[in-house]
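Morning!

This is the sequence you dropped in the shared folder:
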Amino acid sequence: MRSGGVVERPDWLHKIDPAIDTHTEMPIPLNDNIAGRLNEVAAILIEQGANRFRAEAYRRAAETLRSLEQPVSEIFEKDGLEGLQNLPGIGISIARSIRDILQHGKLAMLDRLRGESDPIALLMTVPGIGKVLATKLHDEFGIETLEELEMAAHDGRLEMSAGLGVKRVNGIRDSLAHRLSRVRPPSPGHDGSGEPPVAELLDVDEEYRREGAAGRLQTIAPRRFNPAGRAWLPVLHSGRGDRHYTALFSNTAHAHERRTTHDWVVVYYDGHDREHRSTIVTSDFGRLKGLRIVRGREAECEEYYRKLGKVPPVGVHLLSPSRAD
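The structure's back. Tokens below.
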């Protein structure tokens, strides 16, 4: 906070840049540091073939931060996410990116584009979550972000599936509510944020696998499960209308154990409140066996394929035994 012209360094600032002095007349280097990360996002997006207008948005946001006459942290502390959005050239997606750097000292999207994503380390930053639990939450429940952890804390998964006590879950909820600047918890299930139709997600999935198989996508070397440092993971940046997508094969421990690292596709896209993701896989069972499906939206996928004539109407006998996917 500002006192007599001196800005005291917040506790979390060392996560962003340990070199920043504890007291300084004007810690604009903080703005430069965050701007540098936004510029790096822009450069990687261009290198990986993303839409140039999207990359340019990150560059303009970086210029805005460097032109500020006060630390961007002060704006966020005073006016929250809305205050960041009110800055010239900064929309909701980039405002969330700035917030994440301020609050967590890192930007998950940038780590992912670099191939350095480590969701287990991110989950371990939450009080009450150690390495064993973080690994379980990631590998067994597919939780990769703090937003997904918050959803699990409110929809009962942490208590019923992960076996955590009520007191511990409440502590996780309180910590996440503060870090994510949420006043009210998210509702369980779909949050009304305008999820794309399954047809659109499946179309992005098809584009990713087609372009990747043809060798037309930039590849990155993921840090996890890649001791040789091989650049094997293709990255797709694509768009449908105003919605931006990033698609990659799953690089989780579960995917490696199942040998599905070239089948399971994780698609990231922006919602109104946060970045969302969907996982698309080849169904092994039931009426959708052999077809690509969006996990958690199987009923919608079945209706989609029924309209295409790829699955029989409900009630038609299947020749082979099946069970629910």
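Headline: The chain has a mean pLDDT of 80.

More detail when I'm at my desk.
O.
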